[in-house]
Design brief:
The complex is a heterodimer of chains A (263) and B (323).
Chain A (H helix, E strand, L loop, with lengths): L3 E12 L2 E12 L3 E5 L6 H8 L7 E6 L2 E2 L5 H7 L1 E4 L11 H12 L14 H13 L15 H13 L5 E5 L7 H18 L3 E5 L3 H7 L2 E6 L2 E6 L1 H5 L2 H7 L3 H10 L3
Parallel strand pairs in A: 3-8, 3-9, 6-7, 7-8
Antiparallel strand pairs in A: 1-2, 1-4, 4-5, 9-10
Chain B lengths: L5 H21 L2 H26 L8 H17 L5 H23 L4 H21 L1 H4 L5 E2 L15 H28 L2 H11 L1 H6 L4 H27 L1 E2 L6 H14 L6 H19 L3 H15 L3 H15 L1
Antiparallel strand pairs in B: 1-2
The chains are: A alpha/beta (263), B mainly alpha (323).
Chain lengths: 263, 323
């Protein structure tokens, strides 16, 4: 195994008496697409927040490219090369598709403090914006305001802007939630393809849809009660009935919740 | 959304500048003197709207910085014998930015009403300082602002009005055009794009590598600078700096003017400043209940035309362009 891009060692996160993560140790290496699965309340969101430097673990180590990133926050994480797309779409409603992607291109180039430079005349910037938009099939909508896009397009724009940061690692938190089941595979294929083209070295995927997990991940980390229940290849994962029962069996409850409230 | 082309925009701006440049030649002096506070507010509001319309932070204490500019002019001319208008502008700007730094450091961590209340509190703090420290600030009577020199020239042969509607008017016009151009560049720069991203969704902006607090802070400092320049012009025009300038109702007027003109449009605050000054002057001349009519105007604008006068104008323009 090559050196780990991301690794956690004995990560524990407690909120008072409640232990959300309990001794999580995992590593993600270059070339991997690691799916994080588990029933509701298993600690997936907490783990994702720890991995993206948003939460400082109570105990344990989180490293990205060998550096400690515990609690460093989203901005510095983005600068170091990890991007994140949210489960719920996060867009800039009144900005156009082009402007939204440009926000990320500008910060990737560290041009944010350029105060008197014309944005409009920066041809290299807009070339790059068009390039990113094209990967996600948004090149026909460059001048549309983000709020006017369809739900699926908003999702793609959200992820496209994260890709525009040229991340080495991208964390996708349920990238297909809120998308009709027919479009899920199309979106996943776009994402995996875009990641390969953009030079993304590893993908972390939080996903409930086991079809997608089986098809697109190279490794599956299953969480239960804040602990790593299993960390194995999709083949090994899906051939173990006990694991399937523990993780997938509880999905029914989760689905019922999903229809009630898109958290 | 169709946008007005750059050529049309440029033509409109050139016409507006030409009209303002020729105004002293054909308008009555009274109306020309009204344009001076309009220039002052236009500049102050360009700054205010960088914070409000662009970055999404509504300050209810922004008159604080207008007052700092006015008092800088007063202290320099009356107490320190510095008459150079250029020096007044530089000092006003520096003092305002210095004063804005601690206010901004504390305020930019908050948004919406919390930001508004904090800035309101700082404004009131400064107002009470001006009011109570009589020896320093002249208390409620304030400090006189003596006629400044422009580029070293004191225009002794001109009386007060002739000075104001002559050389000073043109100095303010040049200043307003230059500062509006600078603000246009700021709003349309990579920095301005990041400010807009912060307004639209600060959390998303952070994940795209935008340092939200730092950028809000910078926007705040720039807006304070513009406020102080506006305040200095205002004080030279009235010949007086008094605590009313820092009072919360004055901050309210800044918000009023911006909403009146339309905060979503770059030119909204400019249109708002001019409309407000002339509206107020006409209403004050017509009725003692002018505050009532101003209130009604604001209510109508907010309810019927939330995008302000520039929103109305751009809708009308679209109709014309389509037909």
């Amino acid at each position: 195994m090559s050196t780990a891009l991301i690794e956690t060692v004995g990560v524990r996160k407690a909120y008072g008496d409640f232990v959300a993560l309990d001794g999580v140790t995992l590593a993600v290496a270059e070339g991997e697409t690691v799916a994080i699965v588990g029933p509701n309340g298993a600690g997936k969101t907490t783990l994702v927040n720890v991995l993206t430097g948003l939460l400082k673990p109570t105990e344990g180590i989180v490293r990205f490219k060998g550096d400690d990133i515990a609690g460093i926050g989203p901005v510095r994480l983005a600068e170091r090369g990890m991007a994140r797309a949210f489960q719920l779409v996060h867009i800039f409603p009144a900005l156009t598709v082009a402007e939204t992607i440009a926000v990320a291109v500008v910060s990737h180039r560290r041009h944010g403090l350029k105060t008197f430079v014309s944005l409009r005349r920066d041809a290299a910037l807009w070339d790059r914006v068009r390039e990113v938009a094209a990967i996600f099939g948004l090149d026909g909508k460059l001048d549309s305001e983000a709020r006017l896009l369809s739900q699926g397009e908003k999702k793609l724009l959200d992820i496209a802007s994260a890709f525009a940061l040229v991340p080495e690692v991208i964390l996708l938190d349920e990238p297909t939630s809120g998308v009709s089941s027919g479009d899920k595979h199309a979106i996943m294929r776009t994402l995996i393809d875009a990641a390969r083209r953009a030079g993304v070295k590893a993908i972390l995927l939080v996903e409930h849809d086991m079809d997608l997990v089986a098809e697109y991940s190279t490794r599956i980390v299953a969480l239960q009660g804040g602990k790593v229940l299993a960390d194995r290849t999709p083949d090994a994962f899906f051939s173990d009935p006990e694991i399937i029962a523990a993780i997938v069996g509880k999905r029914v409850g989760r689905l019922a919740q999903d229809t009630r409230l898109p958290t | 959304m169709t946008r007005v082309s750059h050529a049309t925009l440029l033509a409109g701006v050139v016409v507006a500048i030409a009209v303002l440049a020729l105004l002293p030649r054909f308008a009555q002096p009274y109306y020309v003197t009204l344009v001076l506070p309009a220039f002052a507010y236009a500049i102050a509001l360009l700054g205010f709207n960088l914070l409000f319309g662009v970055t999404g932070l509504l300050s209810f204490g922004h008159a604080l910085f207008v007052a700092i500019g006015a008092y800088a002019a007063a202290v320099l001319t009356s107490k320190l014998g510095v008459r150079s208008f250029e020096a007044i502008l530089v000092v006003a700007g520096i003092v305002a930015v210095a004063a804005a730094l601690p206010v901004a450091l504390l305020s930019v961590r908050y948004v919406r009403i919390f930001f508004g209340i904090l800035t309101l509190a700082f404004g009131m703090l400064f107002h009470s300082f001006l009011f109570k420290f009589y020896n320093l600030t002249g208390g409620d009577t304030g400090i006189r602002v003596l006629r400044p020199t422009l580029l070293g020239s004191d225009f002794k042969d001109l009386d007060k009005t002739a000075f104001l509607i002559g050389p000073f008017y043109y100095a303010c016009l040049v200043l307003a055009v230059a500062l509006a151009f600078a603000m246009w560049r700021i709003v349309h720069s990579p920095f301005g794009l990041h400010l807009a991203a912060i307004r639209e969704n600060p959390r998303k902006a952070e994940y795209l590598g935008v340092r939200v607090h730092r950028f809000r802070l910078l926007a705040f400092l720039i807006s304070a600078f513009y406020g102080a320049i506006g305040g200095a012009i205002l004080a030279v025009n009235t010949g007086q700096a008094d605590p009313e300038l820092a009072y919360w109702t004055h901050s309210g007027e800044l918000v009023f003017m911006t909403v009146l003109g339309g905060f979503a449009n770059f030119f909204g605050p400019l249109v708002g400043a001019f409309t407000f000054i002339f509206l107020k002057s006409e209403l004050m001349g017509a009725t003692q209940y002018w505050r009532f009519f101003l209130g009604v105007t604001l209510a109508v604008i907010v309810i019927a035309f939330p995008r302000g006068l520039m929103g109305l104008a751009s809708d009308a323009w679209k109709k014309v362009a389509r037909s």
